Fold these 4 entries.
Entry 1:
Amino acid sequence: MNLHEYQAKELLKRYNVPVQEGFACNTPGEAEEAYRQIKTTYGSNFAVVKAQIHAGGRGKGKIEGKEQRGVAVGKNAEAVKEIAQNILGGTLVTIQTGPSGKLVSKVLVAQDVYYEGPNAIKEFYLSILLDRAQGQNVIMYSTEGGMDIEEVAHNTPDKIFREHVHPSGPLQAFQARKIAFNFGLSGEAFKNMVKFVTNLYNAYVGLDCAMLEINPLFKTSDEKIIAVDCKMSLDDNAIMRHPDLGVLRDVTEEDPTEVEAGKFNLNFVKLDGNVGCMVNGAGLAMATMDMIKLSGGEPANFLDVGGTANAQTVEAGFRIILKDPKVKAILINIFGGIVRCDRVAQGVIDAYQTMGNISVPIIVRLQGTNATEAKKLIDESGLKVQSAILLSEAAELVNKAVS
Amino acid sequence: MAVLVNKNSKILVQGFTGTEGTFHATQMIEYGTHVVGGVTPGKGGSTHLDRPVFNTVADCVRTTGANVSIIFVPPAFAADAIMESAEGGVDLIICITEGIPVQDMVKVKNFLQGKNTRLIGPNCPGVITADECKVGIMPGFVFVKGKIGIVSKSGTLTYEAADQVAKAGLGISTAIGIGGDPIIGTPTKEAVELLMNDPETDGIVMIGEIGGSMEAEAAQWIKEHGTKPVVGFIAGQTAPPGRRMGHAGAIVGGADDTAAAKMKIMEECGIYVVKSPADIGKKMAEVIKK
């Protein structure tokens, strides 16, 4: 589950991780008020307005039809209000959103941390994630902050450091010091960085994060260490033990058909093709998508109906897939193990009859327990449903349907 | 013989009296699996499916001599169940549970270090040695006895592969469902290694998915140590990057863990890679004759 920057920063504060402070605002009026509070608290004339969407590249991205960037600095209340006005309700297109962009319904109005002071400012990069091969969490960091880290990793891999954390304990003090030294810090900033990294790791574990990225991780001119931006995603499997975090889900950031599928406990991912599919099991579902492509079609979705493929789930699946006008055919691929194929076949027939007129061809491939009885049921139903037992037969039927 | 489980294996079921545990334990017993008892904390001393129920794994092992545990415990408590089992002294733990938080598995992986207990899964269909012992949730009849081993991250795709292998006139020695989570007890390489060393296995089907680097490691090992033909398939050639495809571990993170990248490495290492999942059985029949 992905979080917005403003939500992630609030969570980090619980773990005493210093962040660029700000207020999440829904209207230009709220943004103006936020600016006043920031000015009073921090004594700066500047404030940053940041569009809140689940995608990166906001600073370079533009609001559709305007010259407005997704992140902009305002130097007085009117400017901040105007920027918020431009961004809120607009569609922000960035390198990560794709050409259709994302609707912005919140902005974060935040303090300016790039103020002048006794020392130079510095931007770093730091993220914490799982190293799957090692089975351990790893802290990845670089002195090259504020940049696209994949580019840094590609062009100058020696500038990326990794620190694995042993699962039996927290981040050890010597590891936190090593990170701070590798950043080239000393004095007050060094101490602040040690605290920052230690607390950030505690937040990562405590919140059951799947990924936590701070870019830029910022040293101010007066030696403070601050998270200026934060990308956080939580482990979906762990939400059950964090009831307070579950409510942070923003369904408006997700595909509406995916949200609807979730209500029926269907595992659905929207894709761009012309052949819909409904499969039991995630691996077989992916394999079925691949087979559709090899048969000359393009998969329109990933859909795992799980262990119970009955009339209700099949009907829900039909309705969700058919919302997409590009779908030219639907392939149902069920390997009946514990679930009997004849029951699934009856479910398909019932769902088909309830739905009335399905205009696209339906191909049903049922294999496993009672597959022959299932094929007979489908063939004798009088419906415009084609049946197959072997996967290769299903592939041929898909090929015919799309050509 | 085959690997991991056989007709002499003594199975204990954790989460024995729950809905899932009851249903699948019944199916396993019908298959002929030697289920000796189960564990449900608080229900020790009672009897379930004509077998004794214990409060702890250690009690169950001491009394019944169980050496394999299968886990049907809900995700929030599954990591604890795995660690209890390892401490209780079983040789093999098969965890079926899907949805265990990944930080829990980080702890489990560390806990198992240095212990003589092997973990299969979690989020897997289990292990079956055809006609001898089924420790899992797979439909037993699909696994016709033969000499082909299967290693797979996915449940139904394992059944699909087993069915195709049987229809091609071959059969299955042992099928190992290793699980679709980011952290699992037995990676692809180790499962392949077991089957490569098994005198009753003549060929191996290796089924992977997008995400992680386990298939690439297995492929490198096969290149250096392989003595039997391996047919490979990677699910998710059409999966978009950055999206999780059902399994918690099935997500393309970079250029190295796409299906195309994995298939390329596997081919370079001498694995017979099929592009279509419909060709797994056919390809195995073809290469086993060579």
Note: The mean pLDDT of chain A is 93.
Entry 2:
Amino acid sequence: MRHYETIFIVHPELSEEDTAACVEKFRGLLEKDGAFIVKEDHWGRRRLAYTVKKQTKGYFVLVEYGATGEAVDELERNFKIDEQVIRYLTVKIADSFDEEAMAQRKAEAEAAKAAGTPPPSEPDEVDDRDDDDDDDDDDDRDDHRGGRRRRDDDDDED
Amino acid sequence: MITLKRRKYGRRKVCRFCADSSITIDYKEPRTLRYYTTERGKIIPRRISGCCAKHQRELTLAIKRARHIALLPFSAQGSN
């Protein structure tokens, strides 16, 4: 068992139920291969930095889990087949996976979630993120000349 | 002599991640990474950013991962 983390982007034009079903499908796939899921985080619909499969937005899902290499292979094979998933990335966090420690962490996270106020409604969060991204784009445009100047400096030093 | 002079007036750059251990390099945080890319989306070289070799390596990897999952642009052209 190794400790992995996978981010995948679900097609933004799917309905909420379809998105949930899609995520459910991959979660089931992992669990079938004996994976232990530590965390599942839905970032929601976010703007992409560039278009992927002609889409400018995407529904990001982050899953942290412990699994064997074969389970990851199988998961990625299914990502490739499924057209609802437009991009994915798996990163190995650690070579060993301590199931007990992770189970404890998971329980704590769930307890905190249950005790604290429920997370704020998601649409608001998503809107905030979009705004930030837009700001960044504006900066890009304003600072264009600055960027060029800096690159010229580079050339001189070379 | 020139180098001496330059050293006298130049500001010594310190690696931000060495100076402050609370900042982590994570490909899931495009906001931190954006600081280390140019407006066009290129990774800023070590001689400009002032990062130490270890952290520059981590940064490069994080930026490349972030690019792959469309959190950072490969290239930004004009009002893209």
Note: The interface with chain A takes residues 27-28, 30-31, 34, 38-40, 45, 47-48, 65, 67-74, 76, 78-80 of chain B (CB under 8 Å).
Entry 3:
Amino acid sequence: MSRNAAIIGCGQTKHSSKRRDVNLAEMVSEAVYNALEDAQVSLREVDAFVVGNMQGFGGIAQPEQWLGDWIGAVGKPVIRIATGGTTGGSVGQGAYYPVASGLHDIVVAVAWEKHSDSKEAGATTGLLHVGLGNFFHAASYGLSLKNLVATSAVGAAAGVAVYQAVFYMHRSGCSAEHFDMVAAKARRNAAKNKYAHLQWPGCTPEDIARTEIIAYPFRYGHICPASDGASAIVVAEESLARKKTRQPAWFKGLAAFSDEENQLQSENFGGVGVLDPCEQKGCWISATKAYKMAGIKDPKKEIDVAEVYQPFPSQELIFAERLGLFDEGTAWMALEKGETDIDGRMPLDPSGGVNATNAIGSTALQRILECALQIMGKAEEHQVPKKVRNAVAHGWGGVTSYNTVTVLGDSPGR
Amino acid sequence: MGYIKEERPETIAVEGTWDVGSYHYKGSKLLEEYVKGLKQKSLIGSFCPGCGKVIVPPRNLCGRCHLIMDRRKIVSNRGTITCFIVTPPIEKGKLKVLGMDPVETGLIKEGEVVIPVFVKFDGSDSNTDTILLNTDPKAVHIGMRVKVLWAKEPQGALSDFEGVEPL
């Protein structure tokens, strides 16, 4: 039987496109020390660290060897996890397991990205490192060099998400204007989050609609930034959590699943049997399993706030449906009614989400962290104006269909 | 705060490059089979004995059934667009793919609008990723009927399959 575990402290750095005042190790330590301070935990009490970022990004293959000293991990176990865009979600869940199993009492999870260390935009070094193998697979997928380059012209993750968006529009009946609304909401919410990157108080959908088209239906204003930043959580077992914190954020349910890779540039040779890129079965399976573990029967009623992984606005709508928060093809209608606003019935990404702040490795951990803040009542200006009993955090990445779902609550699941 | 010893506006930066280009990877036997088919202007798919799906290009294992797909099936050259993207005109110096400028290398023409599409070929149950050619970008839609545009003299290479064009 596993033990109960909870998040007792959260720490973030300020996110911006260039953190030139710090190097990678200093930046990561900033988040860790903020989290330790928030949790009122000394370094001596920490048993182990789980760390992670996108593999190879920033041009460093084994960053944990550099920053281990800086986060106080000398003589302690350090596990590094890298699962692409989902990394933060896996890092957060990776800190839960040793605590729940009884191996460790206090574990710190930290995830980060430092895009600006790469000279070219978009973490080129990292994308080459990750992407070269994938590009090769794309060639064996049946694309000639010319067509591979033409397809890749759309961009890495944007190229993947744009297929999802077109599919979603086709089958749900939503339009590009709804993406403007999601992006504007993300900018406005971010303006209330002091750690967020793209802050734009009073941003309107019309502001977004004025920006240039990147690849139909995505506009410049729809796309997430590339941020420098780190986030960290402190996970503790039940008795310590109760002693240290008035309101811990309890891990109630968690799961991570992937479907058959459902996009181009798959790791296997050949075509793909998934005809609909926004089906995202992995998210649906993860959510179902995580809710079952958390004892949640009707997520529409029992979940109070959700942090959805939405580097592109279409994904907030798609994944909110896959997480069971709205009926199939209806999330955009709820958006129109303002149900997904901070003060709405089902607030989505009150922090501004990935769309406003995207330090890739860290983003999915930030979703867990933001859910914890909402439960602990520490979200300050972007705190939702209702009692948060259950919150769901989502991560998306891997190749293109790996999903992590973590359900946090104000009381342990059992 | 973290372990920053002193406040400073900027860290010292040291420039360096990292050559990540010197790898080589192996293709599979299936790739060989597929390109041999292309030389004959035929699209080869593999058949799953579990779910009965036909996947183009062929693959070794069914993603969902995890069964070996060792039977082949030739599918139609005609199909339906299931999804598309329309890029803005691609200009020189704006884009780098695989470390190169596609306009400079001649792979994409200056000002070309690229339309990557997913096509479900008749008789297959999969999306095949390719590009749509000879089409007005405004005319492209989901459900559009297309056919394969073959190279004039197929060489038995992936480039034999140039893309698709409207029927």
Note: Chain A has 15 helices and eleven strands.
Entry 4:
Amino acid sequence: MDDINQTRRDILITGAIGATAAALPVAAGAQTPGATSPGAGSTPAPATGKVALRVNGQRSELDLDTRTTLLDMLREHMHLTGTKKGCDQGQCGACTVIVDGRRINSCLSLAVMHEGSEITTIEGLGTPEKMHPMQTAFVKHDGYQCGYCTPGQICSAVAVLDEIRAGTPSHVTPDITQKPLLSVDELRERMSGNICRCGAYSNIIDAINEVAGVKA
Amino acid sequence: MRAFTYQRARTPAEAAAAAARTPGARFIAGGTNLLDLMKLEIETPTHLVDVNGLGLDKIEPTQDGGLRVGALVRNADLAADMRVRRDYGVLSRALVAGASAQLRNKATTAGNLLQRTRCPYFYDPYQACNKRVPGSGCSAIGGYTRQHAIVGQSAACMATHPSDMAVAMQLLDVQVETVRPDGSSRVIPIADFYRLPGTTPHIENNLTAGELITAVTLPKPLGGKHFYHKVRDRASYAFALISVAAVVQPDGSGRVALGGVAHKPWRVPQAEGAMPRGAQAVTAQLLAGASTTEENAFKVPLVERTLASVMADARKA
């Protein structure tokens, strides 16, 4: 009987996680091979962890499956769906958000690792009524076609200008001991972690240029 | 992704002890490589020890004029440190040649050293790979090998090491500091850190179970001109086909290390004696015994030409 109760309890716990995480595709999908593969015996039951952080100025406390990425936390648990899931492996940049002032790929970070973090997503940069200057410039210059990569592009672009102001060198900085200059080459190199399948790159660079105040 | 339990470690020794105590435990810092591999279930840790809170994020001068780089210093911060840019340009250049800005903001010094290969057969769970499943064979051998190793490979594995940073560190003769589960520490010269694949390609370095990297120490500056020339399929955000790290002194002597050609950053100190004689003489010794396939044979002349280009740049005022 104990065995049966144990099993039922595990099922209920797993079910509850599935219900609160309406869509946790990676975690949910992973449980099937985990349960049938030869190594399943060593795989622990899903574990949860608490995390308290601030997203767009609002404090949140969540209790999440440890597997939940920062991206899935934002989209599936906080319903901030502006941040997009493209490749989910750090290659496309659609999931770029700003964490403690630095842009990162939210798909390659675990939510539970962000205790105390300050996170800014596209929703925190501006609103339709009060757009961030970078959002306004993307609209003006048509810095997108389908728009899927755009939130990541804009978060990245805002961070790029901060990085250049801070003097962070890049691969195309001619003299690495000097402060980098604001140039089209620098912008292109620094935006290379954001892929645009529609190929709106030249308009994206025009938009960033306008905000940075340089002539293209 | 398989389920795992998670803890935040408070001290390096506690982290090492926790990792040694729990079978299947792994450290996590930036997570940019580990989480990618966990999603594919190539890495299946049962427990993660988060080392981000250990305070190992400082770059400090050493008594003998070098720099001690904490294991958790982010790649972006190491590349941007003015002392590194001024005195270890090859390292700064290698760092900014790697990955994207988003990844460099997250990836750490120790994590970069421990990156797994980007061999497509390692990444594909449906292919045989001795590195992923020891004893299962190697689908790369006889497969598509344009990106694969040309020196130091074995009958079990021809994967390359993907790091740019580690190539510069090999050139600079850095020391890797660690703490072990019993709380003791040790220093591993980078020349003794990585392993060639041999018959055990799944064992990539000489760290022991639970051993945690705490810092990397750069010796006092070498002077000279610093270069990191990376040749890749895109102008940015791609792994190296080959890369050449070099420090060239005014008399033409110097050091050279290669990326993209072997299971580890590739350096042959004896070959450096030939530097005043030019790229051809150096390459002949650096890549002595190279074994190429039809698809990756281009890497031999590419190394020589890239090194020649570096040496020409070094001769400019």
Note: Residues 209 and 216 of chain A are 7 Å apart (CA to CA).
